[in-house]
Amino acid sequence: MRKFKTESKKLLDLMINSIYTNREIFLRELISNASDAEDKLYFKSLTDSSIQLGKNDLTIRVSFDADARTVTVSDNGLGMDKDGLDANLGVIAHSDSLEFKTAQAANAAGAADEAANAEDDEREESAQVNDVDIIGQFGVGFYSAFMVAKKVRVVTRKYGDEQAWVWESDGVEGYTIEPGEKEGHGTDVILYLKDNTDEESFDTFASEFGLKDLIKRYSNYVRYPIQMMCTKSRQKPKPEDAGDDYKPEWESYSELETINSMTPIWKRRKSEVSQDEYNEFYKSQFHDFTDPARTVSVHAEGAISYDVLLFIPGRAPFDLYSKDYQKGLELYSSNVLIMDKCEELVPDYYNFVRGVVDSQDLTLNISRETLQHNSQLRAIAHKVEKKITGELKKMRDNEREDYEKFFENFGRGLKYGIYSTYGSAKGELGELLLFYSAKQEKMVTLDEYIEGMPEDQKAIYYAAGESAERLQKMPMVTGVLSRGYDVLLCTQDVDDFCMQAMMNYNEKDLKNVASGDLGLESESDKTAAEEATKEHEALFTAMKDALGDKVVRVAVSPVLTDAPAAITSEGPVSLEMEKIMAGMPDANGMPHSQRVLEVNAKHDVFKALAAAQEAGDSQKVSDYTELLYEQALLMEGLPIDDPVAFAQRVCALMK
Fold it and tell me: Is Cytoplasm one of the keywords UniProt gives this record (predicted)?
């Protein structure tokens, strides 16, 4: 037995138990190695006229024996001789594929110069030789087989040689290399599966369903056909002497079937793919039963070349806003799945986007499960984000009905994106937001709101609450509308948080009409308010005393028209924020708004209060103040402290 030419026990233990986190990927690694072997022979055939084969002659075969508990991956690629086996499988982390790729790169400049002076056919052939897309680069993928196998046997024959060789190892101490027999060139890798334990079962890897599932999941787009003998059923021919009561009989048979689709749909130009094909790919790949709302295809070449296929779903997944939902795009390298959900490719506010990114330029870590350097990924992610934003803007401008439906499904996430980034994403997302206009009675963008503003309007006004119907009747909303200014009616729980994080949009301040400080009063309004405050100073003091620390002050409202009073707030916590935070699990520690009771000094109720104060009826002043405050709370959808006392005061008025 030959010893591994490294500290085998330590390194193999690291390979099998540490580098890879998912044992299923052993098949991906072996198929990728087989694909590389096919590539090497194909590229060699382009420069060696003695090799008479075409790309269509190269295949990868996967088979299993359930009784013997073996899995075999075979190729008819370049194969290896005795020295190749010793170098590639005897030295862990030696990559013949990487050497091949490096050698091809070194020859690229010279080949390019020759191609420049060549005829068209020669130039095309030279380009094919230099466009090397070899998958394996670390020389460790083969050893992932020992995650599922107690022994691995490799039978290989190099193209042009007569002698075949057999490499065998249990992945512990070393390996043996002996002469063997094999028809034709290529390599067979035979895995003898580990015995089942109480904790783990390896039987699924020796089954037709299990192997087909792994091939489709990880290697569906490998460029060579991956074939398996698959069991099928068919109806037997009806016997000639069968009577009228004959019942059809069925039989099972085996047929060689190509499992992978080979050509990724994202590598094809958009002009070559119908929308129906995109829709079917989306629904099958991402397990949705509805067509996507938007399909985006990108092919980029440059310092980093990549292909991107994105889908904006037609409906929100049921778990989109749950803690279990995972965002991310599928990441491929040279058509081989690396990550099922690469979170770094999309920001949180675009977590609903599904799709695929494929690039052969990404620097992967040794296990090919994660990236080694993030700069390349960040560059792609930046382009992906810009593309998504651009497509959403196109939908907003050209397909408004579809966009409003999209926003109904995913708008909450965009708003939360602004809030969670403390407003820094408002430049990216602000133009995409939609809100219901009380004046126009339809959904509008912030830019459309600004376009409809009167010349003297300085701010964007909004109201936050549970429903547009109720908000439209709120005293502060009707007060703003009566001045000819529009109000955006925000009915999602994240709206007020989003608006406060934005602070302003296109140099227009965003103001909650329940904040009190709206700047709507004219000079005459200010004068009237000051005079009323001064005239009824004792009344306001008595009202504040009656309410105690429930409010920070009682003031004259410059906005109210019909309503006798309204609750507004001062400081960073609005009334709507307080209401939302009160419903959270740890509500006791949540901050409260600083409430202000604003009264309409022109209303008959205020006149009754003033009369009670002048008559010295302090109890009536106190009761009326409490009633005004509590009715204002009810209009805001806020709870009152003592419903029983409120009911008693109402009954007292009815006597």
Answer: yes
Instruction: Using the predicted structure, report yes or no on whether residue 340 has a pLDDT greater than 70.
Output: yes
How many structural domains does the chain have?
A: 3
Do 259 and 212 meet the contact criterion of CB atoms below 8 Å apart?
Answer: yes
Please report whether residue 550 resides in a domain. yes
| Three state DSSP letters for 558-574 | CCCCCCCEEEEEECCCC
Sign for the pseudo-dihedral over CA of 86, 91, 95, 100: negative
Q: What's the pTM value of the predicted model, to 2 decimals?
A: 0.72
Task: Give me the CATH number covering residue 43.
Answer: 3.30.565.10
Q: How high is the pLDDT of residue 12?
A: 63
pLDDT digits (tens, 9 = 90+) for 49-89: 888 777 678 999 999 999 999 999 999 999 999 998 888 88
Q: CB–CB of 209/198 below 8 Å?
A: no
419: in domain: no
Residue 625 sits in a domain of what CATH number?
A: 1.20.120.790
* Binding-site residues for ATP: 29, 33, 75, 80, 88, 137-142, 187, 368
Q: Quick one: DSSP state of residue 109?
A: H
List pLDDT tens digits, range 629-647.
998 888 888 888 888 888 8
> With b meaning 16 or more CB within 10 Å and e meaning fewer, what string describes 464-503?
bbeebebbbebbbbbbbbeeebbbbbbbebbbbbbbbbbe
Contact 532, 556 (CB under 8 A): yes
Binding annotation: 29, 33, 75, 80, 88, 137-142, 187, 368
Residues making up the chain, counted from first to last: 655
Q: Does residue 367 register a pLDDT over 70?
A: no
Which of 230, 253, 285 is the last residue before a domain boundary?
230
**Same structural domain, 392 and 273:** yes
DSSP 396-442: HHH-HHHHHHHHHHHHHHHHHHHHHTTTTTHHHHGGG--EEETTTTE
Same domain, yes or no: 202 and 72: yes
Torsion of CA 517, 522, 524, 527, to 10 degrees: 30
Q: Please give, one letter per residue, the 3-state secondary structure of 227-276.
A: EEEEEEEEECCCCCCCCCCCCCCEEEEEEEEECCCCCCHHHCCHHHCCHH
Q: At 466, is the secondary structure helix, strand, or coil?
A: coil
Candidates 475, 483, 547; CA nearest to 516 is 475
Q: Give tens-digit pLDDT for 425-445.
A: 998 899 999 999 999 999 999
Decide which of 380, 400, 420 is a domain's last residue. 400
Show the domain range for 86: 2-95+136-230
How far, in Å, CA of 163 to CA of 185, rounded?
A: 10
